[in-house]
Design goal:
Structural class: alpha/beta
Distance between the termini: 46 Å
Mean pLDDT: 86
Shape: globular
CATH class: Alpha Beta
Strand content: 15-25%
CATH superfamily: Alpha/Beta hydrolase fold, catalytic domain
Number of strands: 8
Helix content: 25-40%
C-alpha cells in the first residue's frame, strides 16, 4: 500500500486549524503518487483526496436518462456564469471496459485542473463488463457519444459553447476519446438515445495511452468473443481504422514504461493520423508507466494539455467538424 497520502496527526491538526481560519482551504499531498519534482508553472494546486472543495461539482447527473445506473459529474470553473459561454471537456475513465469510475483519482485530477483553466468538465461512467458472457461494446461508445449530445443539448443551462467540446481519456477511455474524434454517423455508431438528433461531434481529443489497434492487443471480455472468433469486432473498435483527412486534431501521450498498453499502440495511432493528414501531436513520456494523470512524476503534463485545448477549444480552430 502506498502510504504517502496518509497525513501525520500534526498535518491533520494543521488542516483543521487552517480550515477554521480560512474557509474553503484544503491541504493535501502532492498531486501525483511519488511526485518529488519541483513545483512547475503554472503553480500546482493541492491534491484533494476526493472531490475538490474549491469548485462547484454537480454529482451523479443522469445524462443517459431512463433507469440507467451510470451517471456523470459536472465540474464548473471558479468564475462560472451561465450567460458566459465557455468550452467543455468530456472526461472518460479507463479500466479495460471492465472497471473504473468517474470519480477515480486520475479523473478528479484531470477535471479539477481543466475546470481551473475555465472549462466545464463532464466526467462520465459508462456501461462496463459486469459478468461472464455479458457484452458491453459498442454500448460504451454509444454512452460516450450520448454524453457529448447531453453537453450540447444542455449548453445554455451549463454555460457551454456547443461548438467547442473536446474529450480526454486514459487507457480504455483513450480508446473511446479517439473513437469520438474519428467516427462519423456513416460509421454506424450514432444510434438513437435520449438526446437523439443532436450532434456527437467533438472539436479535438486527447488520448492517454489508449488501445488503438485491438487485433494486436489481447482478447477482451467486453466483446464476449476472442480475436480468433470475431476479428471483425476488434477491427471495428480500433480507432486506427477511422482516421480520415479533415478529422479533428488529436494529442496522443504515452509512457515508455507502460506494461499494460504497449507504446506501439500509440505509435500505430500516430501513424494512421499521419497517413490521413490529420493534425496531431504524439508525446512520449520517458519512464512513465500506465495510468498517469496530468501530473506524473516524470513530467508535468498540464502545460502540454492546457496548450492543446486552448488552441482548439479557445482559438479560431475550435468549431466542431
Amino acid at each position: 500500500m502506498n502510504t504517502k497520502f496518509f497525513q501525520p496527526a500534526r498535518w491533520l491538526l494543521l488542516n483543521l486549524v487552517l480550515a477554521l481560519a480560512v474557509p474553503g482551504l484544503v491541504l493535501g499531498a502532492d498531486p501525483a503518487p511519488d511526485d518529488d519534482a519541483q513545483p512547475a508553472k503554472p503553480a500546482r494546486q493541492p491534491y484533494v483526496p476526493g472531490y475538490p472543495t474549491f469548485l462547484r461539482v454537480d454529482r451523479d447527473v443522469a445524462y443517459l436518462g431512463g433507469d440507467r445506473a451510470e451517471k456523470a459529474d459536472v465540474y464548473f470553473p471558479q468564475q462560472w456564469a451561465k450567460d458566459k459561454k465557455v468550452p467543455a471537456v468530456l472526461i472518460i475513465h479507463g479500466g479495460g471496459f471492465n472497471v473504473g469510475d468517474k470519480a477515480n483519482r486520475r479523473e478528479i485530477n484531470i477535471a479539477t485542473n481543466l475546470a481551473l483553466q475555465g472549462y466545464v468538465c463532464m466526467s462520465i461512467n459508462y456501461q462496463l463488463h459486469q459478468k461472464a458472457g455479458e457484452v458491453n461494446w459498442p454500448q460504451a461508445l454509444y454512452d460516450a457519444k450520448a454524453a457529448v449530445r447531453w453537453l450540447r443539448k444542455n449548453a445554455d443551462q451549463l454555460g457551454v459553447d456547443p461548438g467547442r467540446i473536446g474529450v480526454i481519456g486514459g487507457s480504455a477511455g483513450g480508446n473511446l476519446a479517439a473513437m469520438l474524434d474519428l467516427t462519423r454517423p456513416k460509421d454506424g455508431f450514432d444510434l438513437p438515445d435520449p438526446n437523439g438528433g443532436v450532434s456527437a461531434a467533438v472539436s479535438c481529443a486527447v488520448d492517454f495511452y489508449g488501445v488503438t489497434k485491438l487485433m494486436e492487443y489481447h482478447d477482451m471480455k467486453c466483446f464476449g468473443k476472442t480475436r480468433a472468433e470475431a476479428p471483425e469486432l476488434y477491427e471495428k473498435a480500433s480507432p486506427v481504422n477511422y482516421a480520415y483527412k479533415g478529422a479533428p486534431p488529436m494529442l496522443i501521450v504515452h509512457g515508455t514504461a507502460d506494461k499494460t498498453v504497449d507504446i506501439s499502440q500509440s505509435e500505430a495511432m500516430a501513424a494512421a493520423l499521419e497517413k490521413a493528414g490529420v493534425e496531431h501531436q504524439f508525446v512520449i513520456v520517458p519512464k512513465a508507466p500506465h495510468t498517469f494523470d496530468l501530473q506524473p512524476k516524470q513530467r508535468d503534463l498540464r502545460p502540454l494539455v492546457f496548450e492543446f485545448f486552448a488552441k482548439y477549444l479557445k482559438g479560431e480552430t475550435a468549431a466542431a467538424k
